[in-house]
Amino acid sequence: MTFDCLPTLDACSSTERPLNTPPPEPGDGSPSAVRATIVMTARERHGLTERAIDSILRNTACPYRLVYADGSTPDALRERLQARAADGSFEVVRVDPDLWPTHVRRKLVATVDSDYVVFVDNDVIVEPGWLEALIACADETGAGAVGPLYLIGGGDVPTRVHMAGGTLEWIDTPSGRVLRELHADAGSDPGKLADTSVRAPCGYVEYHCVLVRTAAARDGAPFDPEIFCVHEHIDLALTLAQRGYATWSEPRARVTYLATEPWALGELAHRRRRWSLETGNASIAAFCRKWGVADDERSFGGVRAFLREHVRLLDPLRPEAIGRRDLGVAMRPEELVQTRSALLDLAFARGYAPQDRATIAHHCDVAAILMNGGYRPCGRPFVSHLIGTAGVLVRYGFRVEVVLAGLLHAAYTHCPELPPGQKSSIETVRDVLGGAGAPLERRVRAYSRRGEDLDSLASRLDRVDEMSVDDAEIVALVAANEVDMMLGGEYRYTMRDDAMGADGLALVRRVCTALGVPGLAATLEAGVAAPSASPELRTRTLGSYRIVGLERKPMVSRAFAEFDRSAREPRPTD
């Protein structure tokens, strides 16, 4: 069932309420009374929504009403939610897709007819007894807001404590009032904390999941429309405190923020918007005006670091590059760099930090050692191709980790025969890349597995939005590799054919558009029509080679496939 955002949700008939429970009078004491209305909003992506809803339906025993705020929901997910809501287990309420979560909360809180409203993000799963524990805490303490024990995990990352309540410290200084915030018990083992953690008042809780006393917030004041990107949870606690209500932490209620679940390419744009540094700074400025806080690193260094790093840790592009107009422009041949110094100059011109440039310089040296004596089929040094691939990625604003993968993308497939020792040549290369599972090793291994075979990725051309961000990075690396060979003249001056077919180009175009670098795809499309040199100017060599003595030896290493297979296969147990 889908409803426009009307002045009150009471427009819904009683048969549309979860558990087929008619709306009670607030606080009537009936065992079947709905004491809490759960309002779920999209935090930073949509792909975990159904999992979050299912956890509530499965793990909540007391009567409740669950409302999903449908704003920017993708069409396919919206259709599934509407179909599922037909059984009355939850409701879907349409809201303006441009509204931020706190704007939705402000809009919907006035429509709640239960004692409590619980705001929960759509990337959180709850444990049995969570709602009952939150309600009991609010009933017994008179709290205005109650937060659970927040855990964080997902994917292959072990679950840890995210926060057991937050603390606030106010410090008056000559330059203004400073506010320091701290997540209690962050990083702790949840099992160990369960034995020692007890219900207690705290400075603030978070919107991953928070129960709020409806009467204390019905007028919408705790949901300041100008504090909408960051610190809205602290504004809630401070506003409730002004009204005489304390905020409590209740560790008997446990929820897990699925922060480390894999991300899909189609979710990237929403994450970028949600954690925009510009909107974050606007929220910080409003918070400072409202609460008299000095806007400096002491108060907001941590939250600004979060804004910078939260997107950077996932996004293949540097936050500083996103939205630049020249990311939509095709490269000119003269923009292609082929030397270490030219690559570093380009990184400087494109705004890469000194530490990033130093890291690129170091890995240029690693590439030169690994590819020593190697040549491309066109006759240029192999390392020039690697530097060119990295330069394409720098030109289009990819973050340094992706640039390094481009710089060393052939380390496994073209590694040299190193002197025999305790390790094989390929194991030595693995360690040079940081060791098994290190970010650079993981990227180079993934490219070596799939980067030269776009068919497996192109087969999902009609489902690009569902592609993982990791796979999107592989496509970007393939595109940069191809651009170097095109602009570097490799296709024109060898007998090699352009290996990328129509489906591959279509995949690159869609992925690059989703990443925000359509110019990278446009470069490939422009290069496809470039004429080849006359036959007498082209080399007869099809593959890369090393010169050993007076002979050319094929450069491709046959060891990677077996090495990679053995690394992936589980070892037999005794």
The biggest beta sheet reads: 11 strands, mixed
Radius of gyration: 28 Å
Task: Measure the end-to-end span.
Answer: 55 Å
Helical fraction equals 25-40%
Strand content: 15-25%
Q: Give the low-confidence spans.
A: 1-29
Spell out the key features of this protein.
11-stranded mixed β-sheet; disordered N terminus; 2 domains; alpha/beta; Spore Coat Polysaccharide Biosynthesis Protein SpsA, Chain A; 574 residues
Give the arrangement of secondary structure elements.
Layout: E1 2-3, E2 36-41, H1 49-59, E3 64-70, H2 75-85, E4 91-94, H3 101-109, E5 116-121, E6 124-126, H4 130-141, E7 145-154, E8 157-163, E9 166-173, E10 176-183, H5 190-194, E11 200-202, E12 209-213, H6 214-217, H7 232-242, E13 247-257, H8 268-274, H9 277-291, H10 297-312, H11 340-349, H12 354-370, E14 374-375, H13 382-395, H14 400-407, H15 425-432, H16 439-450, H17 455-458, H18 469-487, H19 502-515, H20 518-528, E15 545-548, E16 551-554, H21 559-568
Parallel strand pairs: 1-4, 2-3, 2-5, 3-4, 7-13
Antiparallel strand pairs: 5-12, 6-13, 7-8, 7-12, 9-10, 11-13, 14-15, 15-16
Q: Overview of this structure, please?
A:
The chain has 574 residues and is an alpha/beta fold. It has 2 domains: 2-262, Alpha-Beta Complex (Spore Coat Polysaccharide Biosynthesis Protein SpsA, Chain A); 325-567, Orthogonal Bundle (Hypothetical protein af1432), CATH 1.10.3210. It has helices at 49-59, 75-85, 101-109, 130-141, 190-194, 214-217, 232-242, 268-274, 277-291, 297-312, 340-349, 354-370, 382-395, 400-407, 425-432, 439-450, 455-458, 469-487, 502-515, 518-528, 559-568, and strands at residues 2-3, 36-41, 64-70, 91-94, 116-121, 124-126, 145-154, 157-163, 166-173, 176-183, 200-202, 209-213, 247-257, 374-375, 545-548, 551-554. The strands form 3 sheets. Strands 1, 2, 3, 4, 5, 6, 7, 8, 11, 12 and 13 form an 11-stranded mixed sheet that branches. A hairpin with a 2-residue loop joins strand 15 (545-548) and strand 16 (551-554). Helix 18 crosses helix 20. The radius of gyration is 28 Å and the shape is elongated. The two termini are 55 Å apart. The model is unreliable at 1-29 (pLDDT under 50).
